[in-house]
Specification:
Layout: E1 2-5, E2 7-17, E3 19-27, E4 44-49, E5 56-67, E6 73-76, E7 79-82, E8 85-93, E9 96-106, H1 108-114, E10 117-122, H2 127-132, H3 135-138, E11 144-153, E12 160-171, E13 177-182, E14 194-200, E15 211-214, E16 217-218, E17 246-252, E18 264-269, E19 272-273, E20 279-280, E21 284-293, E22 301-309, E23 315-324, E24 336-341, E25 344-350, E26 359-368, E27 376-383, E28 402-408, E29 421-424, E30 432-433, E31 448-452, H4 455-460, E32 471-472, E33 478-486, E34 489-500, E35 510-513, E36 537-541, E37 547-552, E38 575-582, E39 592-598
């Protein structure tokens, strides 16, 4: 009984455009290891890259593989190469364990710079593995080799989908097949369609029903690759049948895919009945598979360029871009876009124009986040989504349509309605207010509070009231605006100042005036009364009880008569006079009486 551990063959890279691929590579085995018996590999091997002038290298990937756990540092044309990744697979037969590896390196820059010519791989050393585990050589599974997969652009090609699948999987008598499904196709033409693979440990002499099956059709490429011996140590690109224990092959599949196909299946198999009626199978290690299919589809992706939130506002402004990059077709106008907050749909939009291959379209939207969504939430934008997870556009890749970002709304405790500050008139409708007393009504999470005479000044942080604890109002009533600052935001609120009339118990009932023009006591002012009660009426009487003057807030007594026989416009004689003041205030119904001494 055997156990096999593998890293499944899966999509590694996909390219969309007027692209195809080629490959070079070579074995490091001096001969086929079955039926031959040897226990060493070559120090190096060479392959030639010969691309035409109208082919431009888009990407290139170096693979090297062999027995053991892996040599991650090799040389290409004498320059050191360190693996980007190493894949391993283990084959265990009873108590015997056999390890195999494949290393990978993106060598796009090297191939673009070097171009055509010979490429030599060296310094791949598996000697320690072969020395420490003699079963590799005894079982004839000792191998090493390398390959470079080159994706190129050529203007005369149709719009293709080039897909590179890689991993490291074993097929043998216990696991005789690997199945791979290619989704998200829209085949418009089958011209130039092909499939290739890189596999290790195939033996030409072990012909046990090894096949590459595409859409149910066994592929054949004679004379190198018969349909029942696909893994036979050949290199289609070099026309070689001495690629010992390494297969680097490609097949035309124009006749096996149909216009309108939306998917395709790949099957790699080994195993068959030998001449003695016994089921036999070779051990094959699949490293990568490459398909070139004329599939014209768009590919909608989305990125968030910028977003912003406002203080104490549940609106989120988002600037986003829809791309159609990994595509072979135009992304149509009116492709839907859905916006989710913690999975709840909060907005929809759509593309405006057709987005050409490789192009993009930017737009923005303002989302109002419902109150049932927490202040901290995950925003998800999905291209090609009508708002319920359903798309209307078939794409090359249906799994790359969304982008997410964490958002925190800048919401702080509301200021609410603030009470009016009310003080007694200190004279002429003015009083001294301690504006800071309002802060007891605010949340204690506020960092600071600033005071202003207008909302605009509070927003712009200009003309701040410098001494809010001793503020004298300028009008009555007056509105004061506050800017409440929080750690990451601020709020604007307001409250009113109001002056009321109050009658003090300490008002003096005696007063004197001296209207001599010196600017002092020229008119009768009774502090807290005549300068506070704007609607008051004052009447002045002489000692005989004759009314000689009647006035008010804007017409104080200045020692002259405007009533009675003495109404001459001249100053009255020095004497004591008496007054009655009607306050005309609903809170004070009783008049005030007193006397005043007139002197010069």
């Amino acid at each position: 009984m055997s156990n096999i551990y593998a890293q499944d063959i899966d999509v590694f890279q996909q390219f969309y455009g007027r692209y195809s691929y080629t490959a070079i590579g070579n074995t490091l085995n001096p001969a086929e290891n079955n039926p031959n018996t040897f226990c060493q590999i070559l120090p190096q091997s060479t392959a030639n890259l010969n691309m035409s002038a109208d082919q431009t290298v888009l990407a290139a990937y170096l693979y090297w593989a062999g027995s053991g756990l892996g040599d991650t540092e090799v040389s290409l044309n004498g320059d050191p190469v360190v693996a980007d990744d190493t894949l391993n697979v283990v084959y265990q037969q009873g108590s015997i364990t056999l390890d195999y590896f494949s290393c990978f390196k993106d060598v796009t820059d090297v191939i673009q710079m070097t171009g055509n010519g010979d490429y030599t791989l060296s310094d791949l050393d598996i000697s320690d593995t072969l020395a420490s585990n003699p079963y590799h050589c005894a079982f004839r599974t000792n191998f090493a080799g390398w390959a470079i997969i080159v994706v190129y652009e050529e203007d005369t090609l149709p719009l293709n989908q080039v897909s590179i699948y890689h991993g490291l999987e074993i097929i043998n008598r216990n696991v005789p097949e690997i199945n791979i499904t290619i989704d998200n196709l829209n085949v418009l033409d089958n011209d130039g369609a092909k499939i290739g693979f890189l596999a290790w440990e195939g033996d030409n002499t072990l012909n046990y029903g090894e096949s590459l099956v595409f859409n149910g059709n066994v592929l054949e490429n004679l004379p190198l690759n018969p349909g029942d011996n696909a893994f036979n140590g050949t290199n289609t690109f070099m026309g070689s049948n001495t690629s010992y224990n390494m297969d680097l092959d490609v097949y035309d599949i124009e006749n096996y895919i149909t216009v309108g196909d939306t998917s395709a299946t790949i099957q790699l198999t080994t195993g068959g009945i030998d001449g003695n009626g016994v089921f036999q199978a070779d051990l094959i290690i699949i490293n990568n598979i490459v398909t070139v299919l004329n599939s014209q589809l768009p590919d909608a992706t989305v990125v968030i360029n910028d977003l912003s939130v406002s203080c104490d506002n549940r609106d989120v402004w988002i600037d986003y871009t829809i791309f159609n990059v990994n595509s072979t077709e135009v992304l149509p106008a009116n492709t839907p876009i859905a916006f989710y907050a913690d999975g709840v749909l909060v907005g929809t939009a759509s593309t405006i124009d057709d987005i050409l291959i490789g192009e993009q379209e930017s737009n923005n939207i303002v989302l109002n986040i419902p109150t049932n969504i927490p202040n901290d939430f995950t925003l998800t934008i999905v291209a090609d989504d009508i708002g319920n997870g359903t798309g209307i556009v078939q794409e090359t890749d249906e799994g790359n349509n969304s982008v997410t970002q964490q958002i925190s709304l800048l919401l702080n405790p509301p200021i609410g309605d603030l009470p009016t500050l009310e003080l007694c008139d200190e004279g002429n409708n003015q009083a001294t207010f301690d504006l800071t007393s309002i802060e007891s009504q605010l949340s204690n999470v506020a960092v600071s509070v600033q005071y202003f005479n207008s909302e605009n000044e509070a927003e712009l942080l200009i003309n701040e009231i410098e001494t809010p604890s001793e503020y004298v109002n300028s009008i009555n009533p007056e509105t004061i605006y506050i800017r409440v600052n929080y750690p990451d935001c601020f709020q604007i609120g307001s409250f009113n100042l109001n002056i009321i009339n109050c009658l003090s118990d300490t008002i003096s009932s005696t007063n004197g005036i001296s209207p001599n023009g010196d600017g002092t006591n020229d008119t009768l002012v009774i502090p807290g009364v005549t300068d506070v009660f704007e609607n008051h009426v004052i009447k002045i009487f002489n000692r005989y009880g004759t009314l000689i003057f009647e006035g008010g807030y804007n017409h104080p007594w200045s020692g002259k008569a405007n009533r009675g026989i003495n109404h001459t416009g001249s100053l009255l004689p020095v004497s004591t006079y008496y007054y009655i003041i009607d306050l005309n205030d609903d809170n004070y119904s009783e008049p005030l009486v007193g006397w005043v001494y007139l002197n010069y």
